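Appendix B, record 7
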Amino acid sequence: MTHPLKIIFRIFTPVLILGLAIYQFLPETPLPKNAQIDSLVVFKSKRQLLAFYDGQLLKTYSIALGRQPLGAKEYEGDLKTPEGSYIIYDKNPHSDYYKNLGISYPNAKDIAHARKLHRPAGGEIKIHGLKNYMGLLGKFHRWFDWTLGCIAVQNAEIDELYDAVPIGTPIVIYP
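Structure tokens (predicted):
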């Protein structure tokens, strides 16, 4: 007679594998073709990046954050994602993380705060894709906060954002 746990394991394992495959490969709704984005909003607590045009929500992206997601970035190396108002100031199609959009951190307030702590404010905060050669992680990257303070999306999603977000676009990052 087969042990009941073995029966459960034999049923559960294929169901789990099928569920993970569906999660990974089920397509998400793309940004509308030729869409333009004129503002971005991040809600760190919800792990969401919202893309707007003329006040209308175009798409919500699921994101991963810095390894220490609670609280605002205080200084270089704290592994936190900043909070506050910034702009997209740069685009890099040849990033170590597929492609990226540069966020204008640190602003004057961030620099002043880091100085009070006698630490450098840091910089190089981006919205980026997955580390080069790690693109197969796909949606699974969102299960953990793994960046050094950046905002990470899937490679197909940074492609959308890269094309639709002009330099100078405001981005507000909330706790």
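Remarks on this record: Residues 69 and 80 are 5 Å apart (CA to CA). Strands lie at 39-43, 48-53, 56-62, 84-95, 98-103, 126-128, 151-152, 170-174.
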